[in-house]
């Protein structure tokens, strides 16, 4: 998939565990895990907003586009 999710990188920079992020964002651990591993097919803007608030980052810090050539 050409969209790469860098949630694990941002969590490591903020020294935040998946459990802590789940509590702060209000998203289940399993759904955050799916997003973190890049297996998610979609993400709601409200979820992205909550994650950005919790990690003090921009959406571009979490999502990256790479062309498949």
Automatic annotation (TrEMBL):
Q: Name one Pfam family in it.
A: HTH_26
Gene Ontology MF terms: DNA binding
Sequence ranges assigned to domain HTH cro/C1-type in this UniProt record: 7-62
Q: Which SMART domains match?
A: HTH_XRE (SM00530)
UniProt xrefs under Gene3D superfamilies: lambda repressor-like DNA-binding domains
What InterPro entries has UniProt attached to this entry?
Cro/C1-type_HTH, Lambda_DNA-bd_dom_sf
Which protein are we looking at?
A: Transcriptional regulator
């Amino acid at each position: 998939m050409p969209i790469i999710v860098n949630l694990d990188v941002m969590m490591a920079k903020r020294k935040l565990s998946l459990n802590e992020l789940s509590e702060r964002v209000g998203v289940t651990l399993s759904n955050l895990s799916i997003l973190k591993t890049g297996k998610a097919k979609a993400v709601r803007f409200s979820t992205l907003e909550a994650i950005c608030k919790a990690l003090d980052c921009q959406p571009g810090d979490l999502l990256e586009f790479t062309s498949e050539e």
